[in-house]
Each structure stands twice: as structure tokens, then as C-alpha cells.
Automatic annotation (TrEMBL):
Membrane-related topology note: Peripheral membrane protein
Residues in MHD domain copies: 339-580
GO biological process: endoplasmic reticulum to Golgi vesicle-mediated transport; Golgi localization; protein transport; retrograde vesicle-mediated transport, Golgi to endoplasmic reticulum
Role, per record: The coatomer is a cytosolic protein complex that binds to dilysine motifs and reversibly associates with Golgi non-clathrin-coated vesicles, which further mediate biosynthetic protein transport from the ER, via the Golgi up to the trans Golgi network. Coatomer complex is required for budding from Golgi membranes, and is essential for the retrograde Golgi-to-ER transport of dilysine-tagged proteins.
GO terms for cellular component: COPI vesicle coat; Golgi membrane
Quaternary assembly: Oligomeric complex that consists of at least the alpha, beta, beta', gamma, delta, epsilon and zeta subunits.
Pfam families registered for this protein in UniProt: Adap_comp_sub, Clat_adaptor_s
Region Disordered: start-end pairs: 279-301
Annotated family: Belongs to the adaptor complexes medium subunit family. Delta-COP subfamily.
Gene3D superfamilies referenced in this protein's UniProt entry, alphabetically: 3.30.450.60, Mu homology domain, subdomain B
SUPFAM superfamilies: Second domain of Mu2 adaptin subunit (ap50) of ap2 adaptor (SSF49447), SNARE-like (SSF64356)
Keywords on record: Cytoplasm, Cytoplasmic vesicle, ER-Golgi transport, Golgi apparatus, Membrane, Protein transport, Transport
The protein's name in its UniProt record: Coatomer subunit delta
Amino acid sequence: MLLIEMGRLRATANGVVSMGDRFRSKLLCGTEKIVINTSCLAASLWQLNSNRVKMVVLAASIISKSGKALVSRQFVDMSRIRIEALLAAFPKLVGTGKQHTFVETENVRYVYQPVEALYLLLVTNKQSNILEDLETLRLLSKLVPEYSLSLDEEGICETAFELIFAFDEVISLGHKENVTVAQVKQYCEMESHEEKLHKLLMQSKINETKDVMKRKASEIDKSRIEKSIYDKGGFTSLQSMGSGRIENSFSDMSISSGGGGFGSGSGFGLSNGLESSFSKSKGLPPASATAPSKGFGMQLGKSQRTNQFLESLKAEGEVILEDVQPNAIQSRSAAPPLIDPITFTVEERLNVTLKRDGGVSNFDVQGTLLLQILNEKDGHIQVQIESGGNLGILFKTHPNINKELFSNENILGLKNPSRPFPTGQAGAGLLKWRMESVDESVVPLTINCWPSVSGNETYVSIEYEASSMFDLQNVVISVPLPALREAPNVKQNDGEWRYDARNSILEWSILLIDNSNRSGSMEFVVPPADSSVFFPISVQFTAANTYSDLKVVNVLPLNEGPAPRFSQRVQLCTENYQVA
């Protein structure tokens, strides 16, 4: 029988014995007696416990090859100067060509693992269990890529707090917790059903408040319209128009014999529109002396309904253009007037389909040369051109053009020189050309899209690279998105962006791409979605030069007199440019 007394009071037959007393317990085994000094055993256990307290991880850090601290989490009381000195001394201790994963000094031990161009480092004391430290380091190395999209200095600094929170879940007071990667991610997310329910309730209250606001605004607008009608001599509200109360209101008013209007001296502005209503209610034919015109009151009612519709569209994120008169629309849409008597237009249209994983699926360039002549007397000419000598371009002339003259001298002239070129604003086609290729080097703009799901979010990184052949203008990159209730969270953007809520499209706009910004990127976050949702990506842009580099050098008059003045317009534009 083993009698061991330690750490508490115990009643015995001889009295009460405390922990501080030196007494002996006897182990009786057969005829042998082993005497154990319980005070020495208690001292040994206390020493073992104190050693465990000292066996701790001092810090977990991510540093660069030069010793620059990017993220560092200390688990014991330690000054900043102390930890920075320890981290700065580490690169000097790591030798080249060694296969060890730890380095020891007089006071601490470094347990490390290279992570691309960085070091994942544990600083422990020398009494620490190196096997447990290696297991801790292995778990941390799995967590770092989960929270940092790119394992470089910029990516680590952007997710510094997420990494620190993850380190705290793995190491507590310097000792490793028994957790897995999935458990750490779950603890850091801290999803709460009560919080979600609270947010849904708050959102429903906000939506109800918005509906009430819209109804109140509609009532206020309606009251303003009715008041304006009263101020202009109206007799009833808009709600009474067309009802039986109109007939009663007319009984107190005199109809002028001059025909057509009510109370000619009253300045009533609804005479034509309301006269037809009055005639219908009395069974009389409408007056035919004046042509029917839109009533002023009906215009107000139409404006009210239109304003409500436009406000609802604006609330959905649509861009609404103000109404303009038809003649203004025609003047805007009309092309600018021609100043020079002869104008040439060189235009190339791109039809390109790029693969989302790289490569060209379809590349087609179609170009035309158009001639516009204002006066018929300037039509007796020949046109001398030159091109850039691109062997991949095939030219095709109009059937009325002298093909032999064009092949030998690069001059466009009619087969019958006595006939002039046609005149007019439409323009006559002189030359067409086409270019096809599967070489990715001829593509003016490539788009790379990288969607990646992390937790309950999808991070989408888009990058463009422009060729040095062209300076692109008015670039618009349209990315389809899943159905969203709110605009995406744009983290980084080189340019401007706009969210089209109705079509669920994110438009990325760059005004000009030249030598100063041949590449750019954009990053945004949306709820979890499949990567195929973000394709096809549509691209639009224009450029001031073309693949053919075709130019009009000179205009040769066939009649006597000086050569007429001419101008030329050169443009490269997209017709169908997609990344699918």
C-alpha cells in the first residue's frame, strides 16, 4: 500500500498533517520498505510545472528575406525593440545550403519555414518542445495562404489583421491549441444566426421606410399639382376630371359664342381638352373649329406618372437622360458639317474573341476607305494612297475602280476617267480590306480575369495589358455579375467604374491608355458565385491609327486647275470584342 500525502490537509489516526511537514509514507511490498520523502516529490512536481510555463512560443512572425517584419504576434510581454532586434538578427543566422529548419542562439530558438520570398518564423525559448513547435509551424503555413491572396509583402500587409486573428486561434499564451485549419476559419468568421436575423429585420424596416417615403413624396407632388391648377383658374382637382362633377361645375360658367373655349376672359388653360369631355358628357359632337391640342392638365398628369417612373428607375441605379425636344435630338445626332470639299474616311472594325485562359479564338479586321465630295465639279479626281506594307492584309477595290492602276501605282481612279465620283453626304466606298490572324501579339488589348472564392465572398481580379501599337481611347470593359442587391465592393481600380443594376454589369472605364498606363488592374468583391458567371467580358474602345496604316497622300485633279483641298479621318473601333 502506497500512502502519499501532498497539497492538502488530511486527518490521520495520529492527528492532522499539513503540506509543510516532513513526514514519511511507507510503501509496503512484501518484506521490503521503500521510504519516499513527499516533500522532495512535491518539489519535483513544482519544478516540472515551472519548466512547462517557460516552454512557450515567444512570437509568430512573417518577415522578408532581409529581416523586415511584416506581421508579428507576441505571446509574452516583450518590447518592440526586443522583437525587432530578434527578427533583424535572424537572416544573419540562416546559413546557405543548410537543410535545418531551426537556428539556436544563447537565449532563443528560431523555427522557420520559407514561404516563397518570405519567412514564416516562430521565436521560442530553448526549453520549448521543438516537435510541438514544428507542428505549430506546419499549421500556420497552411493558414497563411488561406487568408493572403498573394504571398508577397503587399498581400501580407493587406491581410495583416486576419493573419493575427488566425495566429491567436492557433497559439494561446505561447502554447499550441488543438485546432485544425477548418476550425480556425470557422472561429475567425464568427457567423451568428442572431446577427443575420437582426440584419434582415433592419433591412425590412429600411425597405418599409423607403416605401412610406415614396408614398409621401407622391402625395406631396399630387397636392402641388392640384394647387397649381387652382392658381391657374381650375375649377376642380385632377381626380374630378372626366367625372360627373365636371358637368356640375360647367353649369355656373358661360360658354362664349365665339366657339371653342370656356370663359375667354378667364384665361382658362384647359379649354380644348376639357371641351371634348364636356361634349361627350352632354352627347354633343366635339368642336371642330380648332385643331385638337394636348391639354395642359393632362400634360401635368403625364408628367406626374413619368416622374414616378423615372424616380423608380433612378432608385435601381439607372442613369436617366433628361427629355429634350425632337429637333434637339436631330441636331445632336447629325454628323458635323463637312468643311473641306473632299473628305476621306479610313475606318477599321475589330471582331475579336479571346479565350479566358489565354490565346485567340477569332481575330478579324475589316477596313473601308470612304470618299465624300460636296461639289460635282471636284469629282474628276484620282486618289493616291500608301499603306504600311502589312502582308497579312488583303485589299479589294470597288468594281468601278481601275484595278491595274491601283496595283501598279497605288492610285484609285475610275475605269472611265470622264465620269466623276459620286457626290453626297453618304460617301462612296473606294477600297475594302481584311486581316485575319491567330497570333496573340497582334491583339491590341488583352483581359485577364481571376475569380477566387474565399469563405462567403468571391474576389475578382481583372487586369488589362495593352499593346504598344495603339493608344486606346474611351476604353470600357463590361463584366457581367451575378444578381446583386447592392453594388459590388470595389477594392482597387485604375480608372472609373459604374454598376448597371438593371443589367447586372460592372463597367470599368479608362479614358486613355498610352505609354503611361499600358497595364492596369481592378479588384472587387461579390457574394459567392461560379467563375463562369463573369464571362463573357465585352470591351469597347477606339484608336487614331489602324492596322493597315493606310493614308491618302495626294488628290490628283483630272481637269485643269489646282488640286482641291481634302481632309481625312482615321479610326479603329470595336464591333464585337469579347473574352469568352
